[in-house]
Amino acid sequence: MRRVYACEGGVPWGGRFMNRSHVLVFLLTLALSGGAFAQAPPSADKTTYYAFRPRAVTELKEVQQEIVSLAEAMPAEKYTWRPAEGVRSVSEVYLHMAAGNFGLTAIAGAPPSPGFKFQGYEKSTTDKAQIIDQLKKSFEYAENGIANLSDADLLKPVKFQQFTSVGDIVLHIVAHAHEHLGQSIAYARMNGVVPPWTAAQQQRRGQPSPSPRPPQD
Amino acid sequence: MRKLSIPFLALGLIAAASAARHADAQAAQKLVDRTPPSYDMKPQSLLDLEDLQKKFTSLAEAIPADQYTWRPAPDVRSIAEIFLHVAGTNLQYASALATLPAPSPLPKGYEQSTTEKAKIVAQLNQSFDFAHAAIEQMTNIDFKKPMTQFGPDANAGDIVYLIVMHTHEHLGQAIAYARIKGVVPPWTAAAQLPQQKTSQN
């Protein structure tokens, strides 16, 4: 399932997902199974049926692809642009994302990435090529780190901010990357840069802006 | 023969009861998850959504109403459209989980349906409340439920994942919009009260 489904505007909606027969089947299933689930031992609810780690890795790969292509599309002279004083610049947002990947994945139990030091990292360079290299390395480090965890590792306790387990940290690694991707897309738009994947879609449709389609980001 | 029949009947009943218990036990065994214990992402997803709701609604409150139609470029969502896009996605995908009766389908052009601040904040709150309640209904087992309308391998866990990550992405976008309009996110402003900090968000 591609992550951008949500923003494509083409997702079928309404009766297809939740018509009356679905409601009936759902209620019947609930009535038939509810008692049995209630008797299941507490450990059953702790068990993952959902492929949590593969989903996290897939999401990170998609965010990586988008943020790297966006960083490449941003002109080098815009890397020091910031929307206001006291707010991260373009380069600082990219390095903050990379720091999140390096730092949080180490907290999740991966061997620390050699050469990464959190202190001063976000302001360590404004060089476009170096920053793109750091982004790529940080995402690959996080993807490999999560892929190498076991399901049992996800339950290990962690004390970091509001998070209490390795699984919480893994979820936060992905959320953190998504949040700063959204911020970076806004920064790009404010500087007249169309995200490359949106530009590609528009080109495929032979549709230069302004278009009758809903806004894409 | 009559003397024998009672013990036989009793044995038969015991055997039948035992078989029934055995069948129950077998049925129960099928419901017990034997895979190694692992992470249940529901609690953290709910905590995340609670935090996202607070941030989205406080940011929407902090942005002046006359800025709601601002957009960074033509063909890009305005502030109002981002908020309604988030609300619409929460409602759509949480409804697709089918754990609660779905609210009315979104009207066509929902994202452009209003630019009124109070209505938009109310829509945000309603959508987050519904998404939270819909996920609350799920057990860990439900996360594996196939949802092939989203893709051949998609399941309910993917939809929860999508709701959370989609919201995070647009929060980052909305914060950047706020900043360019001179609005400091309320939680950052609160954190800066004791001491000035640099480079937030």
What do these coordinates show?
The complex is a heterodimer of chains A (217) and B (201). By secondary structure, chain A is mainly α. Chain A contains 8 helices and 2 strands. In chain A, a hairpin with a 2-residue loop joins strand 1 (157-160) and strand 2 (163-165). Chain B is mostly helical and 201 residues long. The longest helix of chain B is centred in the N-terminal third of the chain and has 30 residues, at 2-31. Chain B is globular and about 45 Å long. Chains A and B meet through helix 1, helix 2, helix 3, helix 4 and helix 7 of A and helix 1, helix 2, helix 3 and helix 5 of B.
Task: Please describe the topology of this protein.
The complex is a heterodimer of chains A (217) and B (201).
Chain A: H1 5-8, H2 20-39, H3 42-45, H4 52-73, H5 90-107, H6 128-147, E1 157-160, E2 163-165, H7 166-190, H8 196-204
Antiparallel strand pairs in A: 1-2
Helix pairs in contact in A: 4-6, 4-7, 5-6, 5-7
Chain B: H1 2-31, H2 42-62, H3 79-96, H4 117-136, H5 156-180, H6 186-192
